[in-house]
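Quick log. Single chain, no ligands specified.
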Amino acid sequence: MTRPTMLITGASSGIGAALAVLAAEAGWNIGINYRSDKQGAENVAEKVRNAGGEAVLLQADVADPHQVERLFSDCIAALGPITALINNAGITAPGMRVEEMSVERLQTIFQINTLGSIYCAQSAVRHMAKRYGGAGGAIVNVSSVAAKLGSPGEYADYAASKAAIDALTLGLALENAEEGIRVNAVRPGITDTPIHARGGAPGRAERLKDRIPMKRAGQPEEIAEAILWLASPKASYATGTFIDVTGGR
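-> predicted structure:
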């Protein structure tokens, strides 16, 4: 039986890296997208292959629609038709109030977190939808519980970029329900990944753990399990669905 292909954006570390390994163990081949961390992507690829899957490294900045087109064509050329797209790439920035945020910061946050996911979703639909001769598939967007909480005083721009992802998830799901494409989202809570350090707050997960009912941050694998289920045929009747994986927050 041919292994299906999963394309994961931002897969060189954190949730994307954990998902790549779990999906490989579950029978998928993996397109590993990364922007700059080639070594991290190579490490993930090795783990995918050790788990029995094929892996291809795909360097692209999802904020650039031309690079996104190349990302999809290169993935398909290497692994065959894409069965699942995971819109996982995302960034934060140092915590501050909204009125303190620079134009450059806001543009970068939305270009990567929101527009990047839209560009990838557009390409996925063009390859998957029945109207374009595709065989269907699944799109899973990685949102955030911040979309519901607002992240005041820290990341209100990040929260807003993820709220846009929630709206995109629902609209895209309804548009493509008859096209053979399921579109769903996972909203992680505070998760112990490198995104905090890259955003200037390396100890954030530990610092905020007492705000979480379970009194701990989530692990990347715990988020990845929910994403993998939504991407799989086990979730065949789920579209426009949101799964919160937050430790109760």
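DSSP finds nine helices and seven strands in the chain.
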